[in-house]
Amino acid sequence: MRVLAMLDGTPADPLTPLIRVDDLGLTRGDGVFETILVVDGKPRELGPHLDRLANSAAMLGLPVPDRARWERCVQVVLDNWRGGGEMALKLIYTRGPEFGDGTPTGYAMGLPIGEKVLAARAAGVSAVLLERGYDPAIVARAPWLLLGAKSLSYAVNMAALRHAESMGAAEVIFTAADGSVLEGPTSTVVVASGRTLRTTPPSSGILRGTTQGALFRAAERAGWVTKVEPLTVRELKDAEGVFLASSVRKITRVHTLDGVALPETGALHKELTALYESEY
């Protein structure tokens, strides 16, 4: 089950070729995207996702996304979805055809949640630490590296996940050249110690987490302390719980890191998941 809508609000057949072969999003990864969880017809954190889409577009020098058109496009997908209670909603925004008139390509697509994602939510994942290859100090002085933009150029992230699989793990936690913790290829890293939750700041060149943001809001209301600050690998390994937060996987616990079993976090994971769900 898939549902596709173009940016002008027109429904389209997702099995019919629609993208020009010279679209720069296809040939060069020159574009941005977002993935949003929809539950019972309601998109979660749509506003923050559209904010992040606009921020990524600005970093790439793309035309400012027309928010009203995107909201209308999203609604078309929601109105036509017949695939069950949950859906992954993808927003794609590219520079458009090479040598075109400058009009960007934009569309939204609804997809079912994969079985691997559902299994990871329940059972947790094993992860390995992999170097991302940059020092956070370079972020401010090298904007062309697009650190912190959710661009379509995800080849490195996918290669990292394949490398993890070759090592017998399912997930990756990237580290920086200075040894600090960054993010997962498709997730935000959250650690728990006592009644404190911590995550790495976007200034380190990572995406601002929408799911992590929802979790932190709920946790603060429940009396937790939340901190957005640099995190070392040692602190990661010493934490009472390590979690990956992402739109479609929600709050997923990491049970093994670099082949070493982490402390049991079943009860803690249940509590954090309940806090996150309380936002909706």
TrEMBL record:
Keywords: Lyase
One Gene Ontology term of the molecular function aspect: 4-amino-4-deoxychorismate lyase activity
Pfam families listed in its UniProt record: Aminotran_4 (PF01063)
SUPFAM superfamilies: D-aminoacid aminotransferase-like PLP-dependent enzymes
EC primary class: lyase
Organism superkingdom: Bacteria
EC number: 4.1.3.38
Family according to the record: Belongs to the class-IV pyridoxal-phosphate-dependent aminotransferase family.
Full protein name: Aminodeoxychorismate lyase
